[in-house]
């Protein structure tokens, strides 16, 4: 099977998948609420979650937009299996496949592509964003949700390397796309919307 990880990227195996599926999502409810709020004015008919993990937020998003076609990818086969199982258990139809921010296994264009707590893992972020933007439908939005580095004062903070700074977010600009940055407490979002 194809390996979707690059050298040096954090890999998620059986035990980390079990932890995220059973425990971590409970600790992330506030972040998930922030992510859902960032989608409040959207009406997508097709959605892609990149780095979906076990699909806990994916389920919430698919319930928020029940008429949208839903797709989820993750580089970890263990996470993909957990996603599929969670969607089946909830009775929600979704296409879950192995993939990454640089290798999306669908030919579709999407109204909404989002990634939550995955972006900080990517090695070549600019190239990955450009690739993802090419997968947006007209008037589509790419949404990045992360912990905000500026919020955590201690370099010893658990979130230190699992976050991005507002200054870094402000440095990301791509021709043909409007960028919007929102923050709330320890969370930051970046939205890239195709300019018509």
TrEMBL record:
Pfam families: Methyltransf_25. Keywords: Methyltransferase, Transferase. Residues 47-140 form the Methyltransferase domain. The keyword Kinase does not apply. One of its GO terms (molecular function) is methyltransferase activity. This is Class I SAM-dependent methyltransferase. SUPFAM superfamilies: S-adenosyl-L-methionine-dependent methyltransferases. It comes from the Archaea. InterPro entries: Methyltransf_25, SAM-dependent_MTases_sf. GO terms for biological process: methylation. The keyword Methyltransferase applies.
